[in-house]
Design goal:
The protein is an alpha/beta fold. It contains 17 helices and 14 strands. The protein has helices at about 1-10, 25-35, 50, 70-80, 100-105, 125-130, 140-145, 165-170, 210-225, 240-245, 250-270, 300-305, 310-320, 325-330, 335-350, 350-365, 400-410; strands spanning about 15-20, 55-60, 110-120, 150-155, 175, 190-195, 230-235, 275-280, 285, 290, 370, 375, 380-385, 395. The strands form 3 sheets. A 10-stranded mixed beta sheet has the order 5-6-4-3-7-1-8-13-2-14, with helices on both faces. Strands 9-12 form a two-stranded antiparallel ribbon.
């Protein structure tokens, strides 16, 4: 009997880290493999995603919302183990509050945290930390974070936190930081890091691709100070935002940033032996296809040469008189005469029209396809490592992921 109890305790992780690549359907991890491939070698090298793959998950929301989920319903499923309607933040279809993973962990004496590249009160982190009838209630969600007692809250979102609200956080013992450079000064929990007005900068505009990995590293450092253990959510939020814009160059750079964060956690899991990491996506965004237009080809080298996000290239092109050389330089290829004519027309219509024209041009040169600017209903991959990782093998539903994690939480802490 004692031996059996010992086996259970050995297989039960002390720390649990759930990482969500928002919108990161299977085509994103396949595309990322080719994006990172070394063309000098015969083989296509594995990525962190290939190393850690264990299963797949379905993502559909509650029946009332059909088969295609949004981030709020998906995060509610992953956080609570219950399906809900699109837009729900950890409430059920009757709008009753559902206990979240981080709430359960906190009640057991574990430390909790979120580190994301969107605003900290966006759908995914919100569904792990608190409750709301609508993901759009950004101000209310920010205010509700006061009651979560979370030890680490790192990401963007300054505009949603009034001075009065920040004062309430500091009165509760939170250190408040607004710059990445201030991370080093934080050596103990609790911390509220609002490091951008809304989202963190796009990775493609802000090399190296290490902002989310720095937030992840700091979260691990702070949360592991609790001898009882911790539960951490990390989200590569902006993969989804780039997918909604059908912006392949920006999406692949965001994948790189998320992959670096996974590698930070993978290293932590290797060293600690008592930590479980689960990586998944909440849904697939954009209907990305690696190859398009009847042509059997995809050209990631085109994406590697793009130096800035299309919206930044557009802004620079609109601000300059002699804009064509700027566009050629930042795209990494020279558009043809007819393509420049299309860009000229788009430039006269403003930043958004110009950015869309540039994204479409990058799609043509890389042979990338998209089916929608929304989400699709396909299954997503599940990756895992550490004690309990085998539980996540094969096919499962997103609520199964939550319920498996719940089964691994300590029954009580000493």
């Amino acid at each position: 009997m004692a031996n059996n109890a010992q086996n259970i305790s050995q297989s039960r992780p002390k720390n649990i880290i759930i990482m969500i690549g928002d919108g990161m359907g299977p085509a994103y991890t396949s595309g990322y493999r080719y994006y990172k491939d070394n063309p000098e070698t015969e083989e296509v090298e594995q990525t962190v995603f290939d190393r850690l793959l264990v299963g797949m998950a379905s993502t559909y929301p509650a029946r009332v919302s059909g088969y295609v989920t949004d981030s709020a319903a998906a995060a509610t499923a992953l956080s609570t183990g219950f399906k809900s309607y699109n837009g729900a933040i950890s409430v059920d279809v009757e709008k009753r509050e559902l206990a979240t993973l981080l709430e359960k962990a906190k009640a057991l004496g574990l430390s909790t945290g979120v580190a994301v590249s969107s605003q900290v009160n966006h759908a995914t982190p919100a569904a792990f930390l608190t409750h709301s009838e609508s993901r759009k209630n950004y101000t209310e969600i920010a205010e509700r974070y006061l009651d979560t007692d979370a030890d680490v809250i790192l990401g963007g979102g300054q505009r949603y936190f009034s001075e009065e609200l920040i004062n309430k956080f500091t009165a509760k013992g939170y250190q408040h930081i607004t710059e990445m450079s201030q991370l080093d000064s934080v050596t103990t929990p609790k911390v509220l890091g609002l490091l951008a007005d809304v989202q963190l900068p796009w990775v493609i505009n802000n090399k190296p691709a290490n902002q989310l990995s720095l937030l992840t590293q700091k979260s691990l450092e702070l949360l592991s100070q609790n001898p009882n253990g911790f539960v951490l959510l990390v989200e590569g939020s902006l993969i989804d935002w780039a997918g909604h814009s059908n912006d392949i160059a920006t999406a692949m750079a965001e994948m790189d940033g998320f992959a670096h964060s996974i590698e930070v956690v993978e290293q932590f899991v290797r060293q600690q032996k008592d930590t479980l990491m689960i990586v998944t996506a909440d849904h697939n965004t954009g209907g990305l296809s690696v190859g398009a237009n009847g042509e059997y080809a995809w050209k990631p080298e085109v994406l590697q040469r793009v130096k800035s996000s299309p919206d930044m290239i557009a802004a620079k092109a609109i601000a300059a008189q002699e804009w064509q050389p700027i566009v050629t330089d930042l795209l990494g290829f020279e558009p043809k005469i007819q393509e420049f004519a299309t860009l000229t027309n788009a430039r006269m219509q403003g930043n958004e029209a110009m950015a869309i024209a540039l994204r479409k041009l990058i799609d043509i040169y890389s042979n990338t396809g998209w089916t929608t600017e929304g989400h699709t209903g396909g299954d997503v991959q599940v990756f895992a490592s550490g004690p309990g990782a085998k539980l996540f093998s094969g096919h499962q539903d997103n609520i199964d992921i939550a319920n498996k994690i719940f089964s691994l939480l300590p029954t009580s802490v000493q």
